[in-house]
Design goal:
Length: 392
């Protein structure tokens, strides 16, 4: 069995085989994450659903021209986002308006997407599948019909759900897989929640003091008594929507198999369509107070998920800290908590060290997630760059 697949299938099979007397949850969240894992009553986790959802996640045939999969914008080896571009690039090179959000610990998100327009993982999949600049399908019914006709899928759906491919079962399968993308037990967790004094450096501890004090980061990136998702699940105008985007003169493009080239930004701009305007949470609520408000992201594994902010405008953690240190842009409607901080260079370095301490202990394993599809010649169904790992 694939060692990546076995990280959750074997424990699940053990628990299931133990009979009805076993009351343990199928997945126990690692140190630092809330427990129990939130799972809807109408979609309990099973090994069959998770395996099916994983296969779907990496299958490029879920797009009309067989080029785009979920993993194209949520690349496992790039923090389940895309490190190479500020904005997500979809079917036929179309550029989205926002940075692809990382999927680590997405099971805990109360609302989904940067603007919070969806409530459940089971329903979330409809938007990217039918968005003309993402996976580009004409309708969700088109996707269901196509998957139903692909060899093997109908039988796998019936084995997992007792019924065939439908909008509901498609969403439940993908949601089941995404709920397994848990990452915790970071050095911070072992220090803060488990009391291991040596788990983080003294510099990281100093950064934590700034995070919870002078830096005021904790006012939105919350830390609980027994667990921390580092988000308040709320929406804020950080002013970053008004930050001028100065494009790089050249861009590094990974063509796969370790072959990287640099291309002029002007040349890429001739291929990629410019993004449309983005008004944030306002597009969901139509409340003027929500203009340019976006959901507070979790900071777990944040060192792996560059570029940052909803539009990818800040490329490094240093840039993010500098942005907040100078008080944002001061744009109309900016959250009043964002004000100049007066951080010293040493304090900024300490903050970066603290943020690195939020990297989970299983990120290397998660980075190996892939599912080469036989119908596509065994090639990896993900964006070039996530190479060099054994397949299932």
């Amino acid at each position: 069995m694939n060692p990546v697949l076995s990280r959750w299938v074997l424990p699940l099979l053990f628990l299931l085989s133990a009979g009805p007397a076993v009351s343990q949850p199928l997945i126990v969240p690692p140190l630092g994450l809330p427990s129990p894992l939130p799972v809807p009553d109408d979609n309990p986790l099973t090994p069959e659903k998770i395996a099916l959802g994983r296969k779907l996640f990496f299958d490029r045939r879920l797009s009309p021209n067989n080029t785009m999969s979920c993993a194209m914008c949520h690349v496992p080896a790039q923090g389940f986002t895309v490190n190479e571009v500020r904005l997500a690039v979809g079917i036929n090179g179309k550029t989205g308006r926002r940075n692809a959000p990382a999927l680590y610990n997405v099971a805990y998100q109360r609302l989904l997407f940067h603007d919070g327009r969806e409530f459940f993982l089971e329903d979330q999949i409809i938007s990217p599948l039918t968005n003309p600049v993402e996976m580009g399908n004409p309708s969700i019914g088109y996707v269901v019909d196509k998957v139903r006709k692909l060899p093997g899928y109908e039988d796998e759906f019936r084995a997992a759900f007792g019924t065939g491919v439908s909008v509901a079962t498609l969403g439940k399968a993908l949601a089941s897989y995404q709920r397994t993308l848990l990452s915790g037990n970071a050095p911070f967790d072992r220090w803060y929640f488990a009391g291991e004094a040596e788990a983080v450096s003294e510099e990281a501890k100093a950064g934590f003091a700034i995070f919870t004090g002078k830096g005021r980061c904790v006012s939105c990136h919350l830390i609980g008594e027994h667990a921390a998702l580092f988000t308040d699940h709320a929406f804020h105008n950080t002013g970053v929507a008004h930050l001028p985007l100065i494009p790089e003169k050249t861009v590094e493009v990974d063509l796969g198999s370790g072959f990287v080239v640099r291309l002029p930004r002007t040349q890429l701009d001739q291929v990629l369509l410019p993004p449309e305007k983005d008004l944030g949470r306002y597009e969901v609520t139509l409340d003027p107070a929500d203009l340019w408000r976006y959901k507070t992201p979790s900071l777990r594994n944040v060192a792996l998920t560059a570029p940052y902010m909803h539009n990818g405008v800040l490329l490094t953690l240093d840039e993010v800290i500098d942005y907040y240190d100078r008080g944002g842009t001061g744009a109309e409607g900016q959250d009043p908590r964002i004000a100049p901080l007066g951080l010293t260079p040493e304090e900024k370095r300490a903050l970066v060290a603290f943020l690195h301490s939020l990297t989970g202990d299983n990120v290397t394993t998660l980075a190996q997630e892939r599912y080469p599809h036989a119908e596509l010649g065994g090639t990896m169904a993900a964006r070039p760059g996530a190479t060099g790992y054994p397949g299932p």
